[in-house]
Amino acid sequence: MSEQRHVKVMIIGSGPAGYTAAVYATRAMLEPVLFQGIQPGGQLTITTEVENWPGDSMVMGPDLMVRMEEHAKATGAEIISDHINSLDLSKRPFTAVADSGAVWTADAVILATGAQAKWLGMASEEKFKGFGVSACATCDGFFYRGQDVVVIGGGNTAVEEALFLTNFASKVTLIHRRDSLRSEKILQDRLFKNPKVEILWDTTLEEVTGTEDPLGVEGVQVRNVKTGVISEIPCKGVFIAIGHAPSSELVKDQLETHMGGYVVTAPDSTATSIPGVYAAGDLTDHIYRQAVTSAGMGCMAALEAEKFLAEMEADDSRSKVA
Known about the structure:
The protein has seven helices and 21 strands. By secondary structure, the chain is of the alpha/beta class. A hairpin with an 8-residue loop joins strand 3 (49-50) and strand 4 (59-60).
C-alpha cells in the first residue's frame, strides 16, 4: 500500500524560491515538506559564477544552492528527494502523487518548479542531443577542451554559456539572429573583449551536421537572415542557449497561465487563481528571472500561505462555535 501523509504546506521545487519558502514556512511553525524534484537546486546548479547575489561578490551557483538547502534543513524543513508526478487542485486538501508512489495531501501548496531550457525543435538538434548538442555548458563544456564550439542565442544565458566555454574550447562562435545582444552590458563587454569569441550577427541555425557511426557533431549550417547565404561552420559542440520555458506541466490545465505557460498571480502577490495555491520564482516570473527575485517571491508565498491557513483555522473555529 502506498504511503499517505498529510501536511499543512507542500512546497514543490527546490530553487531559490522553494528553499526560501521552506525557511519562512518553517519559522511560521507550518512544518512544510519540500519536494526537490528531478533537478535539486534548479537552474543555479548548472550555473558557474553568480555575481549578483547580495552578500557574495562571487559565489558558484551549485555552492549557493547547497547553502540554501542546508539553511532550510537547519530551520527544520523536511526535504524529500522525490518528484511530484501529479497534483489535484480541484478540492482541498490538495492531493499529490510522487514518483515513489507516495500520496500526499496538503492544506496549502507553494509551486516553485522553475523553468527548463528551451530547444529549437529541429530534427537534427534532437538527433544529436547528448552527442554534441547540449543546453548546458557547465554540464558538458569540459568535454570540448581544445575544440571549436558554437552557441546559439543572444541573451544572458547565451553570453554566460559562451564565456564559460572559453575556459575549455579553442574557439567559441556565438550565433545570433539579430544585430545586437539582449544580455546585460557588463556581460557583453566581457564577451567582446574575449579573443576566443567570434560573433555571427543576423544569423540562424539551419541544421546540425555530423557522423552516424559513432553519432557525433561535426559542424553546423547557418543562414544569414539578410542575404539568405548559407554557410558551414566546423565544430564539435553546439550549445542551445535561447532561454527557458516555465515548468508548469503539473498545473497548466488547473491554474490560469499566460505568456506560454507562466502561472498568473494576483498583483503584488504570489496567489494563483485557486485559493491556497501560490506560485513563486521562474514559474511565474517572465520579466526578471533572477535568483534574488525568486527568493523574494518564495518569502512572499510562505507568508501568504501562513495568513491563508490562519484564516482557514479561524473560520473552522467560528463554524464549530456556531
